[in-house]
Amino acid sequence: MSYQNLLVEEKEGIVHLTINRPKALNALNQETMGELAQFFGEDYADRRDITGVLLRGAGDRSFVAGADIKEFLGVAAAGSGEDMARKGQAVFFLIERFHRPVIALVNGFALGGGCELAIACHMRVATDTARFGQPEVNLGIIPGYGGTQRLNQLIGKGKAMELTLTGNMIDAAEAHRIGLVNYALPAEAAEEKALEILKTIGTKGPVAIEESIKAINAYYAGSQFDYEAEAFGRASATEDFMEGAAAFVEKRKANFRGK
Ligand code: COA
């Protein structure tokens, strides 16, 4: 159980899990995705003695600023975008299906894969500096880690369309207003609220908690994650994505041509 990009600390039965790549605004590279899979799918998969997990990003600027765009360029160039989306979806399913509650404590940016990670968690508590968005269209791609499915579930089709098609960011107050987060509070109060929720859940019947998570998830069993992965594969194979990602790295505006 050793990680390069995750910090793990257990306090009073609650696991404080921190994604720790602050220089890249905690962007999710493949190594970090692998470690999240290891944490949720192996190391803590059978830990029924814990109350829950509080997930956050290191530093005060960002929860997670998305998939690691620099790394992803190479993946797309190799033509394996669909495969990458399927693997990422599988990691986030481990979180969504985890047997104990996982709360995202969102500080700063939760963009792209970061927003998708937050909405794969069972609940979200935002600090008042949080900013949410699905900016993939700015790069010429689409959300590929479940965002096109889970945003609908949480905030409805109209708002999901708006966020996904405009790529615009929203602040914590707006995220709270539309139901994207359970609470939006100043930083210290946000952490207290998240811990309070986990502690309350910890007083309930553990089997009931586990079965509740499964039953609520079961409602969404018909979601079209496969479709999303295929669509992500098509979008990431375009010249537009190469242009969008190059523009991000070169810190300039993308010039899309619809190819
Ligand atoms: N992947 C890889 N690196 C990323 C990243 C990502 N998703 N998001 C930020 N970074 C890196 C930047 O490249 C920069 O690295 P550098 O110092 O080596 O140049 C560093 O993190 C700080 O980001 P920067 O863009 O300089 O900060 P900012 O305050 O000007 O802007 C954001 C912050 C979040 C608005 C901007 O970084 C951004 O738009 N990131 C991409 C978000 C995105 O499109 N996510 C979806 C990906 S599918």
Major beta sheet summary: 6 strands, mixed
CATH homology-level superfamily? 2-enoyl-CoA Hydratase, Chain A, domain 1
* Biggest sheet, spatial arrangement of strands: 1-2-3-5-7-10
| Number of distinct helices | 12
- Please give the domain count: 1
Helix content: 40-55%
Strand content of the residues, in percent? 15-25%
Shape: globular
Q: Provide the list of bound ligands, each named once.
A: coenzyme A
What does this structure look like?
The structure is a single chain. The protein has helices at residues 30-43, 69-77, 81-96, 113-120, 136-139, 147-155, 157-166, 172-177, 187-202, 206-218, 225-236, 239-249, and strands spanning 6-11, 14-19, 52-57, 62-64, 102-106, 109-111, 123-127, 131-133, 170-171, 183-185. By secondary structure, the chain is of the alpha/beta class. It has a 6-stranded mixed sheet with strand order 1-2-3-5-7-10, sandwiched between helices. Strands 4-6-8-9 form a 4-stranded mixed sheet. It has a single domain, classed as 2-enoyl-CoA Hydratase, Chain A, domain 1, CATH 3.90.226.10. A hairpin with a 2-residue loop joins strand 1 (6-11) and strand 2. The chain is globular. The mean pLDDT is 96. The termini are far apart. Bound molecules: coenzyme A. Coenzyme A (COA) binds at residues 24-25, 27, 65-70, 109, 111-113, 135-136, 138-139. Residues 24-25, 27, 65-70, 109, 111-113, 135-136, 138-139 line the site of coenzyme A (COA).
